[in-house]
Structure formats: structure tokens, C-alpha cells
């Protein structure tokens, strides 16, 4: 059985998806940059760690859809994704533990700096960064789990 994409590639003598790949190489960094914008402007408007995490994961998922799951797993290995899930939760929880050790309540950011408003700003940034890392890693892990599935059909199913 022949693959239609390979037949087209052989007939054209080149990559039939060259426009898609070039546009994606341009868009993926812009999507990641927009995720950072949403992350760091979450204090001043809509946005924050969750939204930025989903946007950043979308850029990785676009990479996987255009260049293949194998290429995405080479660029963003599942081991790194697992570490990201752990690191994000530890960053979130660790921020709360640090506030305990500084004499405040759990996640009372006011004790993180001499000025309460600066401490709240630092604490929110740390927690939102933890949320960003966790959400990005979980979304990519879910995509990898579903994208790696092989169809379980046999000749009897047809």
C-alpha cells in the first residue's frame, strides 16, 4: 500500500508542505513570545500562569503537528516534560513554604520583601511562574499521550 504524501513528494520532487513549515517556523516563536507577554502582564490585565501555559503548550503542539511527533519529542523530551510538571508544583508550593519560614501564613506574600506590596508582587510572580511551568508541561504530556497512541485495529475489524 502506498502513502499518498510520499507519492506526491516523489512526483513533485520536494516537500509538499514547505509553506506550512516556513510559516510555522515564523509563528511558533511569536506564539511563545505572546505567552510570555500574557504571563508577565497578568498582574495588570487578563492573563497569568494558566493562560500563558496553555498558549506556550500550543506552540509546542503546533511544532509537533507540523514537524512530527518524533521531532517534537526530540526537541522537548518526555523526561523534560515530567521534570517540568514536578518543578512547577514545587515552585508553587515552595513559595508558600518560604512564606511560612519567614513568619507569615502559607502563601502570604507580604513577608517576602520589606515592603508588603513588593513582597506580594514577587510572590505572585513566583506562583504564576509555577503555574505556567505546570500547565505547559501537563498540556504537552496530554498531547504526547494521545498523539503516541497506535490504532488497535486488526483485519477482522474491517
Description:
The protein is mainly α and 158 residues long. It has one domain (4-149). Helices cover 72% and strands 0% of the residues. The protein has helices at 4-12, 18-40, 49-67, 69-75, 78-101, 116-147. α2 (18-40) runs antiparallel to α3, α3 packs across α4 and α5 (78-101) runs antiparallel to α6 (116-147). The radius of gyration is 21 Å and the shape is elongated. The chain starts with a helix and ends in an 11-residue tail after the last helix. The model has no long low-confidence stretch (mean pLDDT 88).
Biggest sheet overview = none
How many beta-strand runs? 0
Uncertain stretches of 5 or more adjacent residues:
none
Give the integer mean of the pLDDT values. 88
| Number of contiguous helices | 6
SSE pattern, N- to C-terminal: HHHHHH
Distance between the termini: 16 Å
Features:
mainly alpha, 6 helices
Topology:
Layout: H1 4-12, H2 18-40, H3 49-67, H4 69-75, H5 78-101, H6 116-147
Put the structure in a nutshell.
The chain has helices at 4-12, 18-40, 49-67, 69-75, 78-101, 116-147. The protein starts with a helix and ends in an 11-residue tail after the last helix.
